[in-house]
Predict the 3D structure of the following.
Amino acid sequence: MPGPPALNHVAYDVPSVDAMMRGVAKLRRAERDVVWGPGRHTAGDNTFSYFISPGEFVVEYTSELVEVDDETWVATVHKPSLEIMDQWGYGVGGPKEMPAPIPDALLWRAPAL
């Protein structure tokens, strides 16, 4: 993703879309609301809902992530767009609703080629 070296978010992989939605309900009861989702990413074909933690950190519930079969998998590059990032186009919010990444000078950087 574009932006400075930073930890973007933490994702919790839950067993099913139903488990994700029960998590959404529990967070709403705790007065934490969805900032993006529910939706389905194209890369990975997984469902998602993003929240902001009490410490202002981005957290994602996700489910149904595609399992890659090394024998048949073909790498695909997805040009970022709203339709690619959320193929359902239903959920509230979006990347623009997320807090800006905070640069972290201590994160590993790939050497220049």
Remarks:
- The first strand starts at residue 10 and ends at 13.
- Residues 11-66+79-96 form a domain with the 2,3-Dihydroxybiphenyl 1,2-Dioxygenase; domain 1 fold (CATH 3.10.180.10).
